[in-house]
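Q: I have two molecules that I believe assemble together. Could you output structure tokens for the complex as a whole instead of separate predictions?
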Amino acid sequence: MSSGNLILIALIIPLAATVLIALANKLPNLREAITLLSAVALIIVVYSILPLVLDGNSPGLLLFEIFPGLEIYFELEPLGMLFACIASLLWLINSIYSIGYMRGNNESNQTRFYIFFAIAIFSTIGVAFAGNLVTLFIFYEVLTLSTYPLVTHKGTQDAIHGGRVYLGILLSTSICFFLSAIIWTNVLADTTDFKTGGILNHVNDNSIILLLLLLYAYGIGKAALMPMHKWLPAAMVAPTPVSALLHAVAVVKAGVFSIVKIVSYIFSPALLSDIIELNFLLYLSGATIIIASIIALKSDNLKRRLAYSTISQLSYVIMATAILVPISIMGAAMHILAHAFGKITLFFAAGSIYTASGKTKVSELDGIGRAMPWTMGAFAIGSLSMIGVPPTAGFLSKWFILQGAFTIESWFAVTVIVISTLLNAAYFLPIVYMAFFKEAKSHNTISNGEAPLPIVLALCFTALMTIVLFLYPVYAMQILTLLTGNVS
Amino acid sequence: MLSNHLPILQVVIPLIFAPVCVILRNGTLSWVLASLVSCITFIIACLLLTSVSGGNNITYALGGWVAPAGIEYHVDLLTAYMLLIINAVAAVVVIAARESMASEIASDRLYLFYAAFLLNLTGLLGVVMTGDAFNLFVFIEIASLSSYAMISISRDRRCLYAAFKYLILGTIGASFILISVGLLYAVTGTLNIFDLSDRLGNVENTNTVITALIFFTIGIAIKAAIFPLHLWLPDAYTYSPVIVSTFLAGTTTKVFIYALIRFIYSLFGYEFSFNQLVLNDLLMILACGAVLYGSIQAIRQDSIKRLLAYSSIAQIGYMVLGISIATELGLAASLAHVFNHAVIKVALFLSVACIIYRYNTEMISQLHGISKFMPYTSACFLFGGLSLIGIPLTAGFTSKWLLIQASFSAGYWSLVIIIVFSSILSILYVWKVVEAAYFKTPAVELSNNNTQNAPRLLYIALFIFVLANLYFGTETSVNIGFAKDIAYGLVN
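A: Yes, here they are, computed for all two components at once.
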């Protein structure tokens, strides 16, 4: 089968799933079977494209042209491939988890939930495979709109308010800044295709390049660069599987992915590193890392703490990109991968705790590790990955980023990484400590034991993956090396 | 051959059948007649479009009197494009109108509505079709007078005030246009638009011509509801029957935007209007005001009709903005938006028509949770709204893209900021409705099962226009393709 068809099939699978799920509305078991089967099918398709990309090919597919200059075009390159692999694999894991969570908590409107989830995955794959900015933007917007009903799933006043903030910030930043930047790029370069070496090299005016970069950095609200980060904590009103996959992986990763991709293939790092003042991106992301970590430290609500931790980790990716040497961009990509598995584990654990005991606050977690050893064990591994301690994947990415920071001798970046590592430890380790070593304050609520089996299975798998990525980074490294080839 | 007479048939057919409606004195029969006539004119418009899309313009001398002595009808791509928009909206809206109109006005007046509708259609088509400046004024008056009648026909007594206000302002506007045509005639001795444009070359900088341009621009600005001369529009859209609002929103203001483009590019000349008289600067300021003012007012409304009316003022601002950029791309953006906005606004107004038919209210505060009771209508409104905001893959996105691209290419940074900022405002006012429809606790009155769901034809019309929003957002050979061709033809 031609690679173009495979791309198309990868997009059709989640889309077809939405229709089938809608049809199976009245039959919950069939409905969940459809979700799982489509997730498996998507993984098969995505991983059968992978070897092509690893061989150095970049298969493309022109779907259609809205009008000249506005094409729906897909093209694979290592970074997008990596993102698609993460998203498709985690969709399966997350679906297993969702089944346990949604049934365990007797959530309403489950069909709607699975439908919009599949659309969100569809758009994530679209973002990953996008071959030009227009396509990227279209799927980026679909992702925003399709996750909105998921954020407001509970339909409570809080959920509506959260949804309003979510949609308001993401939609307005993207239309205001992102779209303007794309059109401007199109006017300057007469194309919006992602090309190795960038498409803006002929622009001599540094201020235009800087302004464009600023528009992209803030236009991609999903990357949650402060002060455009408020939507992420607001989105935490969603059911935990949504927070786990979408707000730790798909949505936010679509944001930082876009930034890495734009810096690599629209501007090219070489072009940007010629312009000294560029470092504003470095400072903005550095500041975001520290501030978000401090807010996380002060939050008692577990999901809120995780949300701010996500904001800070996203800025790691942005900062790594802003360092602009191949090794650090490799670190950025690695961090997308490492953080995906680490953070989804943590969210899974938070949802597991909620399902089993109804607890949402950090201060209530004393002694819970004894009742839920698997959950809290996985939580501990996830925390270690966030901090960047071996043997977890987070260590690798931090290593590359630090290497990049030393290469350009940016002591600011080094300091930020060191301080934030300490802060990460300060807000994650106490949770682990309290869970395992402190006595429960009141015994009656703790005794529920572990969450349903699907939940425990899912979170153990992702925790395991965090370690496996550290021990066998061969495949990941292969794809990352290709990426460095493209950006150097 | 009949096909040689298509240009005149386009205008004359609705004109002849308007009095027939009055003779029939029967609402249903008049509806059948009006629907048939609109379908026929739509077919004629399609035929005209296919015959001019190759690049051959059609000229038709009325009564065999050759221009410039006689009145000439002139069909070029711009004309055919506008005819397509007007006729498509007219045909679909009037076919869907029967039950909705019957529920909103007294049954013994229904035939009057259809008569006025056909006259209005005649006027609008005539404005677009004619190549004669005075004839243009006549058709403007036919269109305007019949629209005053259509607005004042509602049961809601406030419509009388709305119609009166429109009458006063509209007449002032028409008088200004007449004065302008008179002045032009005084200096050149001709009324044919293309002949005028030839003869103006020698007398361009005289005060008379400049005054004519000023009078014309102000007159059209009133008619097209260009901020700050839009005062008639919100009341007219709010208090008239919803089908009338739908039709007006989809056609009337667009036709006056057409007249503005036609006079600037084919009559006064681009050089003269823009480079010498900086009309574009003036229009740009007004357009920016329109975009911001309309959007902000829209956010504050509780009546959906009024909200859409203010949104129309903002969208008209976009069209004028495109013209004022004064480049080929800007003009293309403007023309594309004329088309897209017709598609968007008609879809939105038709969904409001469904709601009004069933619940007899258009107040957002009374329609909480309506998505539970009218899921399809709410979804249609949502899609129309997304298109209005300019979300990718909808029609609204394509013209917004062109508009921003035109602003960037011409170096108007501030315009880009205003366009994107007003997009944010449009998210706010669209979401105000969407949120009330989807997320508020359903109002008690709505759950009353005795209410009758909207008629099938109305739904079909709504679906056609919502699908059109998606279609023209992805396959743009009509809206963008023609708009670009027309702009190329007018500028070069």
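A: One point stands out. The first strand of chain A starts at residue 60 and ends at 67.
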